[in-house]
Design a protein that fits this description.
This protein is an all-alpha fold. It is 63% helix and 1% strand. The protein contains 37 helices and 2 strands. The chain is flat, with a radius of gyration of 38 Å.
């Protein structure tokens, strides 16, 4: 049998072995001798094949058995060829030899026509010749850093490792990798990831890189959901947590909605974050505790701990210990309170000024308190500097000197602060304009209480805003509610209706309420029930969606004294919103029902909802049904729509109303909070429903799972017949 056929007989194999044993050891590499009974022929260009024959040689064959093989098989000591086939110095061989062990000549290139050729071999050679890019190296190192962080929970060590990489332009990938790895782990790792991002923000990771990292996560949501089924809910919670922690601007939501496809999972994530988390009552506290962070801590508890650590630091002067205590609070979103209290303490006790400023400087340099929180703390002091002047002589001048000193040391951006104007002439002009507007506002409001003409008030305000500053809206809000509180329930209801109809900017309305709460102590002298009335106005503004629930938390951070009237107002407003069926009660606290439902009773609303659903079920249009539900003007009562729709679907086994619920949820008409309340009410009535629908419990369990799959319900929602599953839309 010819060797070129690729097979070798037993006789030939024995001859080959004997020849290799008698050959010069340097001419044959022991690694190249195959003991397999089957030898696959290779191309002359293959690195493991014998050297190709020189030009003029007939395809490299010599005699019967091919080049060089004749001498091995015949054990002939003299070559019949004119070409010298003896091994070269170093064992690399000549014609008919096996070549050197470390031979790396050009003939070792891979041949795609070689039967043993694989693309993996070429890829390995390419990767060896061309080293990986810096970004690829960064990705590998980041994965290791994140794994180590989850194992050690050491924020400082992680920050140092990320800084040592020296590739800040790739930090957006760190944000994406950290969150995507945490999404597939337990709540502990999710909380750790959120805490780390908040700690690294601005100092280690630039805000633009954080923003870009979240953008990349939105784009890859469709891929993540393949491995992580609850991607939408978890990623939405990460977005909401980033907004609450002040590392992601709220404008991110609107910009991403405009840029993402409506069919993408990223679009659903943004909607879930906005409507299910950031729009829920008292959402900041819920979001912070969702993964176990800040558990069992109230704002008052944290304020007390901040005061204690600052007092202890002034006595001891141990900055490292103070920083450890600040880190242990685990409230990066509330660090502005530390800045505010430290600066006020420095203004009151000038001897402790240098020590307190050194602490803030160290916390800023180590990234413990980010620049946003520092600016926010100083801004809060600027807003209250007039009140501070009553207790601290020359408070304005002292604060100006502290701002200049912090700015010169590089840990405060003075340009981001409101101007601390010392121009008395300018201040007097502003006071004169405000005084003139107050007189006009009072006249407008009194006329409105007589006529009830909302359009006339809106027209007058537009005229005033064209000739004055927008901040006067806050003065109008304060004047409106102050006058209404001293009148009957009719005027109070009219004031709330006017406030929700004017569509004033949210910040202006919040400023008005801040001024109201600040002056609550003085107002209480003329209106003894100011706490009850003002708390109800605040709660009503939240129900009417004039202000967001988050604004209550922001207003609360401005009032430090627990025994002040302003603090009591905020606590009562929060209590009103926490009560069961709070929306209905607050809306009817003064006998009204909103601008479009004045005089309606709850039974009337239920009857109208039933008729809307009945008309849609008989062939109505989804858009028309959604419009009718919206025109009810009772978003807090949309859980009734959910309840009636679910009961009808279970009774008639008709999915038409199910599709209507999907349309309402996707357009934001019905929030997750209302969905969960509606499901909870159905769960409470299952015993009665089972009389008409024997398999009601089985069907309801099915629709609960289906609701979770659609994203209507939080993954933590569970159905338990032994207790109420919901309280104000959140699981107990």
């Amino acid at each position: 049998m010819d060797l070129s056929d690729g097979y070798m007989s037993t006789e030939h194999r024995e001859l080959l072995l004997s020849a290799s044993e008698s050959a010069d050891p340097l001419s044959v590499s022991p690694l190249e001798i195959s003991m397999s009974p089957k030898i696959t022929p290779r191309s002359s260009k293959s690195p493991r094949s014998p050297r190709g024959s020189p030009k003029g040689s007939p395809k490299g064959h010599s005699g019967k058995h091919g080049a060089g093989m004749g001498s091995l098989l015949k054990n002939d000591k003299h070559s019949h060829s004119q070409v010298d086939g003896r091994p070269k110095k170093g064992g690399s061989g000549g014609k008919g030899t096996w070549g050197g062990l470390l031979d790396m000549g050009d003939s070792d290139a891979l041949d795609p026509n070689d039967p043993n050729y694989t693309s993996n071999e070429e890829n390995e050679q390419l990767s060896a010749r061309f080293p990986s890019s810096p970004f690829e190296e960064y990705k590998k190192k980041v994965a290791v850093i994140v794994d180590e962080y989850f194992a050690t929970d050491d924020v400082i060590s992680t920050a140092n490792e990320l800084r040592e990489l020296g590739m800040p332009s790739y930090n957006y990938y760190f944000v994406k990798k950290l969150i995507s790895m945490a999404m597939d782990r337990h709540d502990k790792e999710k909380e750790m990831a959120a805490t780390l991002l908040s700690s690294l923000y601005a100092d280690i990771i630039d805000p633009t890189q954080v923003y870009k990292g979240f953008c990349k996560l939105m784009e890859s949501a469709d891929d993540l959901i393949v491995d992580i089924p609850d991607t939408v809910d978890v990623l939405a919670l990460f977005v909401a947590r980033a907004v609450v922690d002040d590392i992601l601007p709220p404008a991110f939501l609107m910009k991403e909605v405009a840029s993402l496809s409506k069919d993408s999972k990223g679009f659903v994530v943004i909607q879930r974050a906005d409507k299910s988390y950031l729009s829920a009552p008292l959402h900041a506290d819920f979001i912070l505790r969702r993964w176990g962070g800040s558990r069992y801590k109230t704002v008052e508890d944290i304020k007390g701990q901040i005061s204690d650590l600052l007092v202890e630091y002034v006595v001891s002067g141990d900055r490292k210990e103070a920083c450890i205590c600040i880190k242990g609070l685990k409230v990066p979103f509330f660090h502005h309170e530390i800045v505010k209290r430290a600066i006020i303490m420095a203004m009151e006790n000038r001897k402790a000024e240098d020590r307190l400023l050194d602490l803030l400087k160290m916390a800023a340099e180590e990234g413990l308190i980010n620049s946003s929180q520092i600016s926010k703390g100083f801004s809060r002091i600027i807003d209250t500097v007039d009140d501070l002047s009553l207790d601290i002589p020359k408070a304005r001048q002292i604060l100006q000197s502290l701002i200049s000193k912090a700015s010169s040391e590089g840990w405060l951006c003075a340009s981001s602060l409101k101007p601390l104007s010392l121009d008395l002439n300018k201040k007097s002009l502003e006071d004169a304009a405000a005084k003139a507007f107050k007189a006009k506002a009072q006249s407008m409001i009194q006329e409105y209480f007589l006529s009830g003409d909302i359009s006339e008030v809106s027209r007058c305000l537009e005229t005033e805003k064209n000739s004055s500053t927008p901040e006067l809206n806050g003065i109008f809000v304060k004047k409106l509610i102050t006058l209404a509180m001293d009148r009957k329930n009719r005027e109070k209801e009219m004031a709330s209706v006017l406030l929700s109809s004017l569509c004033l900017p949210g910040d202006d309305v919040v400023n008005g309420f801040v001024m109201l709460v600040e002056s609550a102590d003085d107002t209480a002298l003329d209106i003894p029930v100011v706490v009850d009335d003002l708390a109800m106005f605040l709660a009503r503004a939240v129900v009417d969606e004039v202000i967001a629930p988050l604004h209550l938390e922001e207003i609360g951070t401005l009032f430090l004294m627990p025994d002040s009237v302003g603090n009591k107002v905020l606590q009562m407003a929060k209590s009103l919103l926490k009560a069961r069926l709070s929306g209905e009660r607050i809306l009817r606290c003064w006998g009204g029902g909103g601008s479009s439902t004045n005089g309606w009773a709850i039974e009337d609303v239920k009857d109208k909802i039933g008729k809307i659903l009945e008309e849609f079920e008989t062939g109505g249009d989804k858009r028309e049904a959604c419009r009718c539900i919206k025109e009810l003007g009772m978003p807090f009562f949309h859980h009734e729509v959910v309840k009636k729709s679910l009961v009808t679907v279970m009774e008639k086994k008709n999915d038409r109303l199910w599709r209507l619920l999907g349309e309402c949820f996707s357009t934001g008409l019905i929030t997750m909070n209302q969905m969960m309340k509606g499901y909870g009410r159905v769960a409470e009535s299952l015993d009665d429903l089972s009389l008409d629908v024997p398999d009601a419990e089985k069907q309801f369990t099915h629709y609960v799972e289906r609701g979770k799959a659609e994203g209507w319900l939080d993954s933590s929602f569970s159905f338990n017949r032994s207790r109420q599953p919901l309280e104000n839309g959140f699981c107990l």
